[in-house]
Write a structure and sequence with these properties.
about 190 residues; mainly alpha; about 40% helix; about 5% strand; 6 helices; 3 domains; 2 strands
């Protein structure tokens, strides 16, 4: 079995750290400990994405001969990676990592039954449990994230992502108004199309 906490074993930078032993002082005794605890700490998105990509590559190669829909399965792998990247932009890393760990476990269960199709689907239950209410704090002097625009200088402005139905969190994680960019009403601009 392969667990999400074992992903570091697929990262060339960290995989050999688990084989090392260190002498550690535990209270008043010296103990021999493995060094894998430091390797398992995923402190950033990159520390997850690199070994996860290797995992997907190995998994895709292994199931390709027996999976007629391998193209959509591989697309699901990339969609999941893109979701993690988007989540890391919007939410605190600890929350994103918790989502990843639970989602990975859920997908392992699905794959044990031969179902590889759900990697590209966001699990709303897990998302609600781990991500909602864990948005990154908006810095008042920081530039707005890509895809948002301010209507007038000094104003809060409207959220472009809301107007294209991509910002669904309320209140807006970037502090922008969730109002129509055309008429200023409480609906997205897509209503006018």
């Amino acid at each position: 079995e392969f667990w999400s906490l074992d992903l570091y074993k697929l990262d060339p930078q960290y995989r050999y750290k688990a084989d090392r032993c260190i002498l550690a002082l535990n209270g008043d005794t010296l103990e021999l400990q493995t060094g894998d605890s430091s390797a398992k700490e995923y402190r950033s998105l990159n520390l997850v994405i690199i070994p996860l990509s290797t995992y997907f590559s190995i998994l895709g190669s292994a199931i390709a001969p027996i999976t007629p829909s391998i193209g959509s399965v591989i697309s699901g792998f990339w969609a999941y990676t893109a979701s993690l990247m988007q989540f890391a932009l919007e939410y605190n890393w600890a929350a994103v990592h918790a989502y990843h760990a639970d989602f990975f476990i859920a997908q392992r269960r699905e794959m044990q039954t031969g179902n590889y199709s759900k990697w590209g689907c966001i699990d709303l239950d897990i998302q609600t449990c781990h991500l909602f209410s864990h948005n990154k704090a908006a810095c008042p002097n920081a530039p707005a994230p890509s895809g948002t625009k301010t209507r007038k200088a000094g104003g809060a402005g409207y959220c472009i992502k809301y107007n294209t139905r991509h910002c669904t969190t309320s209140p807006c994680p970037w502090g922008h108004l969730h109002t129509c960019s055309t008429c200023g009403q409480g609906h997205p601009v897509t209503k006018h199309k």
